[in-house]
Amino acid sequence: MPSQLFSKLSHWQFAILACASSIGYTFSIGDLSKFLEYDEAEIIKELDQLGAFVNIFGSEDKEYSFISQEIYQNLLTYLHTLEEDDKAGKAVFYHKIKATHYQTKFDMLLAQIKNHTHYLTEIIKNPCIQEGNWEQSLMLITETLSKVIDVTRVSVWSYNEEEGYIACLDLYEKLYQTHSKGTVLYQKDFPSYFKALEDEVIINADNALTNEYTFEFAEVYLTPLQICSMLDIPFYIGGKLGGVICFEHQFSFRKWKVEEIMFTTSICSVISITYQSLLIKQSEKELKKANAEITSQNEELNQQQEELAAINESLVMKNALIEMQRTELQKQYETLDTQQKQLIDTTKRLNKSIEYAKSLQDTILPKPSEVLNFFTDYFSIYLPKDVVSGDFYWFYQVSTQKAIVVLADCTGHGVAGAFMSMIGNTLLHKIIKEKGVHNPAQILSYLHEDIISLLRQKEERNKDGMDVSICLFEKHNNVSY
Fold first, then answer.
1. 368-480, what's its fold?
2. For the chain, what is the largest distance between any 2 Cα atoms, rounded to a whole number of angstroms?
3. Coiled-coil annotation: which residues (predicted)?
4. Which of 383, 416, 425, 404 is nearest to 480 (CA)?
């Protein structure tokens, strides 16, 4: 019978076995010491006296187990019987220890909650959170969680449902005190884990190597980094899954506590608030930028309006000036038209005068009959450049046997040349006909002196003149010179 089996034990020995059974079939000295709030060495001494009930389990001397399932079940049955009899001394002693244990656990939990509340308040009050500084806020959160939860690796991941991946926004490694980011994990590689995300499940993996949601990470992620336990808690942004906070405990397995999950859930709310603050700050920044651009555009428009007003005023002045110029041009046009008419009239009169001058010049040229009276045959080519010309030829028959022919090229063209040709004709008439000079050399000499005198070339430095060739023909000698 169970009562006979345990009746010979002292109250203290019975309390040790009862507390050990509350922990489980196997238990550690550390857990039992915390439960009883008693020194480990003293508990080990007592356990050595209880060899009929428990023995060392495994390779380490601090791990124990009941010697059989029968002993373990008998103890549980006996404890149930004692709980129905409050007057039993062993039960009363056990309940006192149990009550003390739970009070201690409650006090520890309360202290932990106060500690969590303190850190949560500090995070919320931090300027990074208030200002929506996303990267700095994530670094603050991961470092705080690592410190409070006492875990070596803490990270925050964003979730992209459409493209099926999570991306690391910040990873804090306590051992190295470093932050990193950028790792991407895809749904096609870890379908079980992403199924948990889609179902919005808190992934509480005391043994991440075998957990139904995390075992897929074992070979490529968990084992190389010696990660034994994982805790992934989702956070939400705008009512939708935004990502997860991931705890990765290295080098040993760990049982995650409810208060740790609750604290992290509160931090998830902080992440959501921070992201919303970031969006608000970005909206305010964009609005401020838009307002600045509008202000700048308004200033530019005002400046352009002022410039347009100045341009318009300038155009008005220019139009007035153009109108004045147009009026002036109209007057000038009318003046030019009048002058043109006068010029046309003058030109007509001048042309008539020139035509008349030509007729006069033609009269001084020898008549063909006069020349044929001396020469049996001759021809002349006379092609003036202008209507009247400075070129002329002159003929005088001295006698039936003698005649003088003159070819002259006066300086100038047109009217000026024509005047010189008239002077030349007059002087030749005077020298040859009136004075009777028939020697070509003497004729040229007299002609030269008369032109200098007539044109006053010595006083006025006038250089007008003519190139002259004079030929004297004598029939009876058949000579010319």
1. Phosphatase 2c; domain 1 (3.60.40)
2. 199
3. 280-339
4. 404
d(CA 340, CA 85): 147
Give every CB contact of residue 290 below 8 A, 6+ residues apart in sequence. Answer: none
CA distances from 3 to 7, 79, 94, 381 (A): 6, 10, 15, 172
255 DSSP assignment: P
> Which two structure tokens, joined as six digits, stand for 205?
């993996």
Element (H, E) at 264: helix 258-364
Task: With a cut of 80, say whether residue 6 has pLDDT above it.
Answer: no
Q: How many CA atoms lie within 13 A of 185 on its CB side?
A: 22
How do residues 276-315 score in pLDDT, each as one tens digit? 777 777 778 888 888 888 888 888 888 888 888 888 888 8
Give me the numbers of helices (H) and strands (E) for the chain, helices first please.
15, 14
CATH dotted code for 133-281 = 3.30.450.40
Helices 11-23, 89-125: axis angle to 10 degrees equals 50
The sign one gets for the Cα dihedral 438, 442, 445, 450 is: negative
